[in-house]
């Protein structure tokens, strides 16, 4: 067992030594025939979009792929250049028969030896930029409301927002108007808050008493559409002015 592990380690070390610089894209490649595995490799190259042009004779080729074997089972593949210089060697973890699955795995490994095309580089850069923007956006607080807002007597004002995971509504508010200088603050799923505001009950996340000022720290967990609402429904005569700065934070 130790001998087998040692042999495998040596083989993988040789493979690492024989991996030269990136292979040239769109080079002409000839695959030496071996027990139909060459046919499987050709199909796998097409499926995995390996950037080579397969040719039918060795004299047409820039690169030549040889299939390594122990006489019966396939042990790996080797890519050589014009001067028989070994450019890349891939050894299978264990010897295999000619199977499409093994060919596709080999093709996937070979594809990584070629430089990316300009289109692939552009797509990768776009993905990186999008991921960075998404990460920055998720890390920064999102403003739900910030400013001064009038609310008529017997009415309410709400601000919609969405979450796609656990978030916290944080901020402060202050109210002026009427004899009590007060307002009620409600946070919860959109439909539940609308029901609550209109006197139909509702499974809301937070509802304050009538307050002149206060701080919000409401944790939300379920993804969906939410509302932050300031309710002046209890006041029949007096309009209110609400100054609020509320954010949605991770």
How would you sum up this structure, described in words?
- The structure is a single chain.
- With 250 residues, the protein is of the alpha+beta class.
- The chain folds into two domains: 2-115, Double Stranded RNA Binding Domain, CATH 3.30.160; 140-249, Sandwich (Jelly Rolls).
- The protein is built from five helices and 13 strands.
- The longest helix is centred in the middle third of the chain and has 22 residues, at 118-139.
- The protein is rod-shaped.
Quick overview of this protein structure:
The protein is of the alpha+beta class and 250 residues long. The chain is 28% helix and 38% strand.
Q: Largest sheet at a glance?
A: 5 strands, mixed
Estimated structural class = alpha+beta
Quaternary structure type:
single chain
Measure the end-to-end span: 52 Å
Write the topology of this structure.
Blueprint: H1 2-17, E1 27-31, H2 37-48, E2 52-54, E3 63-69, E4 74-80, E5 86-96, H3 100-111, H4 118-139, E6 142-151, E7 156-163, E8 167-176, E9 184-189, H5 190-197, E10 206-207, E11 213-220, E12 224-231, E13 240-249
Parallel strand pairs: 1-2, 1-3
Antiparallel strand pairs: 3-4, 4-5, 6-13, 7-12, 8-11, 8-13, 9-10, 9-12
Helix pairs in contact: 2-3
């Amino acid at each position: 067992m130790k001998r087998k592990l040692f042999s495998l380690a040596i083989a993988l070390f040789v493979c690492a030594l024989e991996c030269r610089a990136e292979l040239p894209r769109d080079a002409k490649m000839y695959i030496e025939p071996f027990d139909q595995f060459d046919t499987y490799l050709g199909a796998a190259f097409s499926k995995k979009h390996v950037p080579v042009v397969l040719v039918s004779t060795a004299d047409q080729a820039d690169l030549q792929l040889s299939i390594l074997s122990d006489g019966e089972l396939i042990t790996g593949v080797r890519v050589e250049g014009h001067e028989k210089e070994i450019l890349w060697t891939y050894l299978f973890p264990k010897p295999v028969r000619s199977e499409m699955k093994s060919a596709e795995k080999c093709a996937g490994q070979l594809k990584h030896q070629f430089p990316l095309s300009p289109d692939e580089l552009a797509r990768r850069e776009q993905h990186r930029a999008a991921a960075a923007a998404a990460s920055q956006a998720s890390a920064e607080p999102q403003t739900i409301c910030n400013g001064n807002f009038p609310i008529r007597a017997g009415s309410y004002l709400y601000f919609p927002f969405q979450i796609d995971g656990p978030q916290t509504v944080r901020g402060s508010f202050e109210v002026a108007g009427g004899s009590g200088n007060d307002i009620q603050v409600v946070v919860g799923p959109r439909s539940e808050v609308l029901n609550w505001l209109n006197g139909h009950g509702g499974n809301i996340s937070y509802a304050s008493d009538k307050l002149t000022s206060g701080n919000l720290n409401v944790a939300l967990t379920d993804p969906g559409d939410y509302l932050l609402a300031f309710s002046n429904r209890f006041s029949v005569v007096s309009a209110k002015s609400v100054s609020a700065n509320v954010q949605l934070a991770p």
